[in-house]
Each structure stands twice: as C-alpha cells, then as structure tokens.
Amino acid sequence: MSSVEVEGLVKRFNSFVAVDNITFSIGRGEVFGLLGPNGAGKTTTIRMLACLISPSAGNVRIGGYDIRNDSLKVREIVGILTENPSLYERLTAFENMDFFAEAYGLSTEQKRYDRIKELLEFFDLWTRRDDKVATFSKGMKQKLAIARALIHSPQVLLLDEPTSGLDPESSKEIRDLIKDLAHDGSSTVLLSTHRLEDAEKLSNRVMIINKGKNVIVGTPDELKKVFGEPILEIRLRKLQSVLTEGLSKLIYVKDFSVDNEQNRLLIKVEAIDSSTPEVVRNIVLNGGDILSVKALYPSLEDAYLKLVKG
User: Fold this and answer.
1) pLDDT band (50, 70, 90) for residue 220
2) Backbone phi, then psi, for 229, in 5-degree steps?
3) Strand partners, 27
4) Rounded CA gap, 279 and 305, in Å?
5) Which of 112, 41, 14 is nearest to 308 (CA)?
6) What is the average per-residue pLDDT within 284-297?
7) Cross-strand bridge partners of residue 19
8) What's this model's pTM, rounded to 2 decimal places?
9) Apex 277 CA angle, 274 and 280, nearest 5
10) I want to staple 136 with a disulfide (CB 3.0 to 4.6 A). Which of 88, 140, 210, 240 is the partner?
C-alpha cells in the first residue's frame, strides 16, 4: 500500500516551470530518495507535498488524503524538516519541542512531556533540554529539528537535505537515526538530497530529477546495473604476458586492461557470475599466482552522473 501517491505534479512560478509533470509513489515504511542537482526541483516538490505551497497541476494523496481538499489532515500526518531547521534559538530545546507539541494537538502537559522526553533521549539531547538552542552545534540543531518533525508521530516524514553542512561524524549520526526511524516500518521517509552517499546507504528506491523532470526511478542497485557494467579485478603476485595472451582468446572476455603498478588485471566479461570461474581457471592454468579476485561494481554516483550530466 502506498503512503504517498503523486501523479503529474507541476509547479510554475510565472513562466518558470520548477517541477514538470513528475509521477511517483512511496510504499508504507519505505525510504525514498529524491536526487538531483541544485535547482532540480527537489525542495519545491517537498514543499508541495507538505502543503506549504500549492501545485499548479497534478494530483497528490498522502495517507489517502488529497493535498488540496484535505490539507489540514495532510499536515496532521506529515512531519517535515526544511533545508534550514528554523528553530527558535532564544528558546531552550525543551521549549522548542513543547511549542510544536502543543501546536500539533498534544493537549495535556503530561503527554507533551512524555513525548518530548522520549524523542530527546532518542536523539541524545535530553541532558541539554534546558540549554538555549543558540548554544547548540549545527549537528545538534539538525537532530533537534528532526525530533521536532517527529513530535506528533507522523506517518510520513519529509526530509530536505538532512545532512547538509554537517561534518562526517554528525552526518553518520543523522543517517543512523533515519535508518532507525524506518526500521520498524512505522514511518515512510522521503529523503531529498544531493549527497549520493546518503541516498545509496538509506534508500529502498530513488528517483532522479533534473530541471524539474523525472529522469528515472529504481533501486540503487537497479540504476547501477542499467548504467554501468561490473569489472573483474584480479590481483596477481606477478604479471606475465602469457596471462594476457590467454585472456585474449576467451570468447566471454569483452575487454581488459593491465595495471602494472598494482599487478592487477581489469577485465570486462559477459555475465560476470558465470564467467569469473572460467577466467580464474584460465589464469591459473597459464601459471598465474592469484592474490585476490573482486567484482568492481559502478557506484550510484556513476549512474547519477551519466543521467544528469550526460
């Protein structure tokens, strides 16, 4: 069952088309990556899904609610992290959370306290609950902003560049938190990012958009297989000409190159799973002393660059 259904979504700003007829769906409990360069339309898409701006055309249903006719219901079940956290820096972490908890309808003080404590402990911020947000690091502010987005236990979480501007350690903490949030299947996550590492590690599926248009949708592995072939890397104790002569006679070897500095062969083959044993056997029969055999697969970055940059 889909938590998010988008069909023919368009957003125009006067003559400029920021989002141009994109269609996708997100299953319940799925982490869906929205990839694209700056200016591709990612943030505009998220703002429409969160009912912050109205679409020019198209249909969107979130949790079964239409974003035009049931915008209040959509806001009740959606949590959003904007690219800029927009926290009240003169307030403490607890005061920020309490303000939004009351705004989202957590009516009793005890309910708000219990939910705030649960989230701040989860994000390792409980001991800093009485400190003003202005004293927080950027990573701490980002975690607090995600906690705020979760205050009302949303069905759908919209995250716009959650690791933008963070150091590697803080970025990893945020990625781990997103994994934990989606692990039990209770939250559906739309992750908008231009960090391909985040998308590859976190997303069940990704959609690449460019200039407002949908380029492709698929799992990270599907995109890598469509836009790149694996290469067989064989490291040897010593390179010998007899080895390359033997490879050139194999019909399932499409091409190969020799790396003399690292004593390795880089081999393009047909059907790598079935061809690898035959290649290894040929090298051994020709006197090759193999140290390691590895299949090098293209990265999501390789596929992304081919799609976006041509």
Assistant:
1) confident
2) -105, 145
3) 2
4) 31
5) 41
6) 89
7) 11
8) 0.79
9) 140
10) 140
The span from the CA of 150 to the CA of 181, in Å, is 10
DSSP annotation of 11: E
H/E stretch holding 23:
strand 16-27
* 147: Cα separation from own chain's centroid: 19
Output the pLDDT for position 23: 96
Q: Is residue 178 a contact partner of residue 202, using CB atoms and an 8 Å limit?
A: yes
Q: Which run of H or of E encompasses 301?
A: helix 300-308
Residues contacting residue 289 through CB under 8 Å, at least 6 positions apart:
236, 237, 238
Q: Distances in Å between the alpha carbon of 100 and those of 11, 60, 95, 284?
A: 29, 25, 9, 67
Tally Cβ neighbours within 10 Å of residue 208: 23
Q: How far apart are CA 160 and CA 163, in angstroms?
A: 9
- CA 93 – CA 148 distance, rounded (Å): 10
What tokens does 41 get? 């339309």
Mind listing the domains of the chain with CATH numbers? 2-218 (3.40.50.300), 226-304 (3.30.70.100)
The answer, yes or no, to whether residue 203 has pLDDT greater than 80, is yes
The average pLDDT across 90-108 equals: 92
Return d(Cα 236, Cα 261) in angstroms, integer: 11
Instruction: For residue 20, give the nearest of 209, 191, 216, 217 by alpha carbon.
Output: 209
Residue 185 has pLDDT above 70, yes or no: no
Residue 40: count of CB within 10 angstroms of its CB: 23
